[in-house]
Amino acid sequence: MPDNQYPQDLIAALLSTSPCQSAHSEVGSKPVDLIVGERLRSRREALGLSQETLAAAVRMPPVWIEFYETGQERLRAAHLIEFSRILGVKLRFFFGRA
């Protein structure tokens, strides 16, 4: 896949998400939150890390890792950057690109 192309499911998910809405003002998950959460979980599990271990590394309660992985809460940019550093992946990994 060329660098300037993104998977169609990601494009659809991003288009269905309003950039003006707060992560905490919505009820239910947006498709992009589910994609990011699935990628977070897959990388954590691939590295053999528990939710508790990852949570301790980013100094947050373990329940928040579950919320992020299931799309119940939207990851803030600062947390996404921290997760990418800890998990050894580029930011684009979370959006379906290795």
Question: What does the model show?
Answer:
It contains five helices and no strands. Helix 1 packs across helix 2 and helix 3 (51-57) packs across helix 4 (62-69). The chain is mostly helical and 98 residues long. Mean pLDDT is 81; it is low at 17-27. It has a domain at 33-98: 434 Repressor (Amino-terminal Domain). It starts with 7 loop residues before the first helix and ends in an 11-residue tail after the last helix.
- Poorly predicted sequence stretches spanning 5 or more consecutive residues: 17-27
CATH architecture of one domain: Orthogonal Bundle
Mean pLDDT: 81
Order of helices and strands: HHHHH
CATH class of one domain: Mainly Alpha
Instruction: Give the total of beta strands.
Output: 0
Question: What is the terminal-to-terminal distance?
Answer: 11 Å
Structure classification:
mainly alpha
Q: Share of helix among residues? A: 40-55%
Give a short account of the largest sheet. Answer: none
Write the layout of secondary structure elements.
Blueprint: H1 8-15, H2 31-46, H3 51-57, H4 62-69, H5 77-87
Helix pairs in contact: 1-2, 3-4
Q: What labels would you give this structure?
A:
single chain, 98 residues, 434 Repressor (Amino-terminal Domain), 5 helices
Short summary:
The chain is built from 5 helices and no strands. It has 98 residues and is mainly alpha-helical.
